[in-house]
Amino acid sequence: MNRSSLPYSAQDLFPKAPIGNGNNVAGSSSILGGSRTIGMAHNSTSTPSSSSAFAATASNSATSPIRRLQKFLRRLFRPSSLDFETAIWEIFHLVLNPKKMYRSHYYRLQGKASYTRDDPAFLILLTGFLSLSAIAWGLAYSPRMADVIKLVGYMVVVDFYLTGAVIATLMWVVTNRVFNGSFAMVLPISSQQSHARLRVNYIDWGFCFDVHCNAFVVIWGSLYVVQFFLLPLLNVKRSFIALFFGNTLYFGAIGHYFVITFYGYNSLPFVSGGIGARQLQTIVLMGVLPALAIAWLLSICLGLNVAHLMVETYFN
């Protein structure tokens, strides 16, 4: 494969719009987000055989999320099948070089039916790191063991899993409506035509949650680890240094979360280098990041120490 076709190898955050009208060619195959589908022309003159083949492919792929979940759960209880080495490599590069991580992810998953992880090693490691961090916070700042257990449950279950599920669901709906105009959350199970429409440029919910997990690594590193060691400094009241570095740490971590999220969705073949990538770029670079910068500046001007506020919220 030509290197220029890889995401972030040439276009990175400033992708160029594709040349041509962007219509799919009938009979061509491509990997689209969650499944391998057959592109169809936008006219309605397709032959019955090609329509039947497409509907059959879509119908078979409709059950693939369940199969992938079963495979994921089976590997969860088979430690010998888990690839912790790759998971550690991914966590390391998500902090230092997320573009390299997604480029490697693109290479590794070529030819597979989904871009969703089928190896729970990454999720196990991240959950373990979050749990250890929460225990350290609890032992340092909570007076009772019951409070430590509550803190672990809140930081891991609520902050990571429940919040991630909400964000993944929101992104699943929004991105599918943007990149697949015929997407609907509720479709007749017996309708092959509805299944066929669903599989065009379809993005799996699992992929959206994977993107959240990838982006949450920087939240863990900044707010669970770095803040833990700097908290005696960041929690000093009426200190401009504590105010500046604490707020910068929080808003910087949140901004990095959105940047890695952009990298994740831009790694999809039908998004990278096209109008969709430009839309995502506009939202992140001209919407989210400027809003975070304004919020950071206002918090500094108003003397609102975000680190102190979060510690008061968690530890009363």
From TrEMBL:
Stretches that traverse the bilayer: 121-139, 151-174, 215-234, 241-263, 283-307
Localisation per UniProt entry: Membrane
Main location: membrane
Keyword terms: Membrane, Transmembrane, Transmembrane helix
Entry keyword annotation includes Transmembrane helix: yes
Membrane topology of this protein: Multi-pass membrane protein
Pfam name, any one: UNC-50
Superkingdom of origin organism: Eukaryota
Membership in a protein family: Belongs to the unc-50 family.
Name assigned to this protein: UNC-50 family protein
Organism: [Candida] anglica
